[in-house]
């Protein structure tokens, strides 16, 4: 009997037709949409005289360029206002479920899917957003698509897609105190580069991965894209089932029991051969931070920026260009570098566990005077929990202010832009040139590292405050 990976099992169960020497016609269980990549898809759908084939399989929310203050007022930015209005109109016309601004379950699309229980093991999930891979934490095949493909899913609930190669990344051992899932994924990307996963779907495995919470697993899968992979996934287990149980869209009663029985079969067969495998020890991972202009340019917070030794002329030129943009030099240490902004949020680290870790770290302290801090919850649910748990009060006492849900400064499509030349240590997923605003300089790190930077005003290893840390479980 053929040995199959988790990826194989889900993929093969969703193939409608295989085209010889071509892609598969691939069925999509859930389609998430937002205000930026859906308007043209809806427009073209209607031009063809088509409707959304299965509206009950589509879920919408505005998130990418919505404001994070005064969400109860008219959106000032004309483009943002128009996109949100179009989303409302299109969802109403086609019968699509919308979690709008101000409603109980509004938030970043990749945050609300899991917290509502819409995301479930064994599904295929797409969205017009590259970080759809977040949902892979539940044992799903989830990936981003373009606007024309959004239209294709609207019309047919299928997509034309070639099957990716399979990679497995195993992380065994126990993480040290103050080391989080963000550090794991930044470490992996630094090891295999920002293009090392190109052409692959990645399964994450090993004792360090299975020990993580669901929210921490989402961070890992979210950034699979940042090593060039099509997506990433983690086999569902008791942690997954416990997270989903009782959620609004999760199965209930006998249906729950049936679902769990099926979900337990969603794992890679013993002896399955992958196209590529990597193995890492958790003990080797320390708090990480990026220094360049792609997520693969990362080092340990207490490490030094790599030198140009061994680089050819082309690599050297590109490397120096990146460091010049950041205002850094080869071989120098990042510790003690003055920072201007910190950002806690995004579909990578805007969940309640992220806010909890920041709040516990800053409790009883004050943020540095030179730091402007943006703390943006990933959803209204996260915002409500932060208020209820006293997190907001703790943050305010430390000089921070919680904003309202949205993608915010992750991609700076709204007003939350880092000014040109300023440094931001961010919990988001990308540090490309100008990603957080024209001329902005972004360093990616974990929420704990960001909290340490916010308090000291400079790049700091959070383990310097070791007695106050709570380990991610």
Largest sheet: 5 strands, parallel
Gyration radius, rounded: 22 Å
Could you say what the CATH topology of the largest domain is called? Answer: Aconitase, domain 3
Q: What's the CATH superfamily of the largest domain, by name?
A: Aconitase, domain 3
Major sheet strand order: 5-4-3-6-7
Individual helix count:
16
Helicity range of the residues? 25-40%
Derived structural class: alpha/beta
- Tell me the fraction of residues in β-strands, as a range: 15-25%
Low-pLDDT stretches: none
Mean of all residue-level pLDDT scores? 96
The dominant shape is globular
Total discrete domains: 2
Characterization of this structure:
Pfam families: Aconitase. Catalyzes the isomerization between 2-isopropylmalate and 3-isopropylmalate, via the formation of 2-isopropylmaleate. Belongs to the aconitase/IPM isomerase family. LeuC type 1 subfamily. Heterodimer of LeuC and LeuD. GO terms for molecular function: 3-isopropylmalate dehydratase activity; 4 iron, 4 sulfur cluster binding; metal ion binding. It is a single chain. The protein has 2 domains: 6-168 and 200-276, Aconitase, domain 3 (2-Layer Sandwich), CATH 3.30.499; 335-468, Aconitase, domain 3. The chain has helices spanning 6-14, 39-47, 78-94, 109-116, 147-156, 181-192, 207-210, 214-222, 238-244, 253-263, 313-326, 346-349, 352-362, 380-388, 391-397, 447-456; strands spanning 15-18, 24-27, 30-33, 58-60, 97-98, 124-127, 141-144, 158-161, 165-172, 200-205, 231-233, 276-281, 288-290, 298-300, 341-344, 372-375, 423-426, 441-444. Helix 2 packs across helix 5, helix 6 (181-192) runs parallel beside helix 8 (214-222) and helix 13 runs parallel beside helix 16 (447-456). It is an alpha/beta fold and 473 residues long. A 5-stranded parallel sheet has the order 5-4-3-6-7, with helices on both faces. Strands 11-10-9-12 form a 4-stranded parallel sheet.
């Amino acid at each position: 009997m053929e040995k199959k990976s988790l990826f194989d099992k889900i993929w093969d169960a969703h193939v409608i037709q295989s085209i010889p020497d071509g892609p598969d016609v691939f069925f999509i269980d859930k389609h998430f949409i937002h205000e930026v990549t859906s308007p043209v898809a809806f427009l073209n759908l209607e031009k063809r005289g088509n409707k959304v084939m299965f509206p009950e399989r589509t879920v919408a929310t505005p998130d990418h360029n919505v404001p994070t203050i005064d969400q109860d007022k008219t959106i000032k930015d004309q483009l943002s206002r128009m996109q949100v209005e179009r989303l409302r109109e299109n969802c109403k016309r086609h019968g699509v479920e919308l979690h709008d601004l101000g409603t109980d379950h509004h938030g970043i699309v990749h945050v609300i899917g899991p917290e509502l229980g819409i995301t479930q093991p064994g599904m295929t999930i797409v969205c017009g957003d590259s970080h759809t891979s977040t949902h892979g934490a539940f044992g799903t095949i989830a990936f981003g698509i373009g606007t024309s493909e959004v239209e294709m899913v609207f019309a047919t609930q299928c997509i034309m897609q070639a099957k990716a190669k399979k990679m497995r990344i195993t992380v065994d051992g126990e993480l040290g105190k103050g080391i989080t899932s963000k550090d794991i994924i930044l470490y992996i990307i630094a090891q295999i580069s920002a293009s090392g996963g190109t052409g692959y779907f990645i399964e994450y495995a090993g004792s360090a991965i299975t020990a993580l919470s669901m929210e921490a697993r989402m961070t890992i899968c979210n950034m699979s894209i940042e090593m060039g992979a099509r997506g990433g996934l983690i086999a569902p287990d008791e942690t997954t089932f416990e997270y989903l149980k009782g959620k609004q869209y999760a199965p209930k009663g006998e249906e729950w029991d049936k679902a769990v029985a099926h979900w337990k079969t969603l794992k890679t067969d013993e002896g399955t051969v992958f196209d590529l495998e990597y193995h890492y020890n958790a003990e080797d991972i320390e708090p990480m931070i990026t220094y360049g202009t792609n997520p693969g340019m990362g080092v340990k917070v207490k490490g030094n920026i790599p030198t140009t030794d061994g680089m050819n002329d082309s690599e050297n030129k590109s490397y120096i260009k990146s460091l010049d943009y950041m205002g850094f030099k080869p071989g120098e240490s990042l510790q003690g570098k003055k920072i201007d902004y910190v950002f806690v949020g995004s579909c990578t680290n805007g969940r309640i566990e992220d806010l909890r870790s920041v709040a516990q770290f800053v409790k009883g302290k004050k943020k540095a005077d030179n730091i402007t801090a943006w703390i943006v919850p990933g959803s209204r649910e996260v915002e409500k929990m932060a208020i209820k748990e006293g997190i907001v009060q703790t943050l305010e006492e430390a000089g921070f202010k919680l904003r309202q849900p949205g993608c915010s400064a992750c991609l700076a499509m709204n007003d939350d832009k880092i000014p040109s030349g300023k440094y931001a240590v961010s919990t988001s997923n990308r540090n490309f040139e100008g990603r957080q605003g024209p001329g902005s300089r972004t360093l990616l790190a974990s929420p704990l590292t960001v909290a340490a930077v916010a308090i000291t005003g400079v790049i700091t290893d959070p383990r310097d405050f070791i007695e106050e840390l709570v380990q991610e479980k």
